[in-house]
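not sure who needs this but someone in the group chat was asking about PRR5 from Acanthosepion pharaonis so here u go. i didnt clean anything up, its just raw.
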Amino acid sequence: MIRKNRKSSGLTRIHDAVIHVFQRKALPYSYYTLQSNLRRLIRTDTGPIIYDFFKDQLLKKGMVILRESLKSLKGAALLDKLSETWDYFFKEILLTLQAILYPFQDCPPEDVTISLRQLILADFRDTVLLKINLDVEEALEMAPVVPEPIKQMVLVLQGINDGISLEHQLKLERIVVRAVYPYLGVRGLYESGDTEPTIEASTAANISAKETEASKILLNALVHGR
């Protein structure tokens, strides 16, 4: 069914526009045209399938485009390119996708529990950053100074509440603590930029949601106040 729908001019336009955004090309159609096409598609019986197509296929296809520009880089070159990629993604791609896909925010599928913005950010986390996590960790360990866009990136991504798996949460935590500290994470309190906590949590459950949220607020204040 989704293949038949992709043949429609409306879905084809949305597909082309989203890919153009990730390729840093100008939009081939106006926002009005794209939003109107999406609204019409949402009102049909295939509305929920359209959302899944964007989430499971189209969005990931775009994120792979971003990841391809990073995967062969190491050290300072990786941090420089990742900083530039994140900066463009956060300021341009994210906002443009939100504008194109605004009708999803008006009429979200019933089982969707996170916002469109969180969905896009979470996919950057999972499809881009966590696929090159070991290289990023190594680069941060060697870096004399952590670029500001990297600090912003990890602070934004660690704040997404989308039911991330513990495995992914721990991978992300190892990157976060290399970039910003002090940090209160699942494994405990990190104070020195090392991947081992200074004060270990006896269990993950010992760190309450309130303590974690307080840590995030403090961390934001420390980073942006420097």
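also The chain is about 65% helix and 5% strand. if thats useful
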